Fold this protein.
Amino acid sequence: MRLFHAVHGTTPYAFLQAKRARVARRLLETSDAGLDQIAAEAGFDNRVTLFRHLQRVAGCSGRALRKGAPARIEQSA
Protein backbone atom coordinates (compact mmCIF):
# COMPACT_ATOMS: atom_id res chain seq x y z
CA MET A 1 0.00 0.00 0.00
CA ARG A 2 2.85 2.36 0.75
CA LEU A 3 4.34 1.83 -2.69
CA PHE A 4 0.94 2.28 -4.36
CA HIS A 5 0.39 5.50 -2.44
CA ALA A 6 3.86 6.74 -3.34
CA VAL A 7 3.29 6.07 -7.04
CA HIS A 8 -0.34 7.18 -7.37
CA GLY A 9 -0.69 9.63 -4.51
CA THR A 10 -3.78 7.92 -3.13
CA THR A 11 -4.93 4.68 -1.54
CA PRO A 12 -5.91 1.72 -3.74
CA TYR A 13 -9.55 2.05 -2.65
CA ALA A 14 -9.72 5.77 -3.46
CA PHE A 15 -8.02 5.08 -6.80
CA LEU A 16 -10.59 2.41 -7.64
CA GLN A 17 -13.54 4.57 -6.58
CA ALA A 18 -12.27 7.50 -8.69
CA LYS A 19 -11.90 5.18 -11.68
CA ARG A 20 -15.44 3.85 -11.16
CA ALA A 21 -16.77 7.41 -10.91
CA ARG A 22 -15.07 8.35 -14.20
CA VAL A 23 -16.57 5.30 -15.93
CA ALA A 24 -20.03 6.11 -14.54
CA ARG A 25 -19.71 9.74 -15.60
CA ARG A 26 -18.73 8.74 -19.13
CA LEU A 27 -21.65 6.31 -19.35
CA LEU A 28 -24.10 8.89 -17.98
CA GLU A 29 -22.95 11.44 -20.54
CA THR A 30 -22.77 9.16 -23.58
CA SER A 31 -25.42 6.47 -23.21
CA ASP A 32 -29.11 6.11 -22.58
CA ALA A 33 -28.58 3.05 -20.37
CA GLY A 34 -30.59 2.77 -17.19
CA LEU A 35 -29.07 3.89 -13.92
CA ASP A 36 -29.00 0.39 -12.47
CA GLN A 37 -27.14 -0.83 -15.55
CA ILE A 38 -24.64 2.04 -15.39
CA ALA A 39 -24.00 1.37 -11.71
CA ALA A 40 -23.34 -2.30 -12.44
CA GLU A 41 -21.09 -1.58 -15.44
CA ALA A 42 -19.06 0.94 -13.43
CA GLY A 43 -18.59 -1.52 -10.57
CA PHE A 44 -20.93 -0.07 -7.95
CA ASP A 45 -23.23 -2.37 -5.98
CA ASN A 46 -26.36 -0.44 -6.92
CA ARG A 47 -27.52 2.95 -8.12
CA VAL A 48 -27.86 4.32 -4.59
CA THR A 49 -24.16 3.68 -3.99
CA LEU A 50 -23.39 5.26 -7.36
CA PHE A 51 -25.44 8.38 -6.52
CA ARG A 52 -23.85 8.75 -3.10
CA HIS A 53 -20.38 8.45 -4.52
CA LEU A 54 -21.03 10.84 -7.42
CA GLN A 55 -22.44 13.42 -5.02
CA ARG A 56 -19.33 13.10 -2.85
CA VAL A 57 -16.66 13.19 -5.58
CA ALA A 58 -18.36 15.08 -8.41
CA GLY A 59 -20.46 17.49 -6.40
CA CYS A 60 -23.55 16.79 -8.47
CA SER A 61 -26.11 14.09 -9.12
CA GLY A 62 -26.24 11.53 -11.87
CA ARG A 63 -29.14 13.41 -13.44
CA ALA A 64 -27.06 16.60 -13.59
CA LEU A 65 -24.16 14.71 -15.17
CA ARG A 66 -26.50 13.21 -17.74
CA LYS A 67 -27.64 16.74 -18.63
CA GLY A 68 -24.00 17.81 -19.08
CA ALA A 69 -23.21 19.57 -15.80
CA PRO A 70 -19.49 19.98 -15.12
CA ALA A 71 -18.08 17.68 -12.45
CA ARG A 72 -14.97 17.83 -10.32
CA ILE A 73 -13.99 14.15 -10.55
CA GLU A 74 -10.22 13.99 -10.22
CA GLN A 75 -8.37 12.66 -13.23
CA SER A 76 -5.38 11.15 -11.41
CA ALA A 77 -5.91 7.61 -12.67
Notes: The domain at 2-66 is CATH 1.10.10.60 (Arc Repressor Mutant, subunit A).
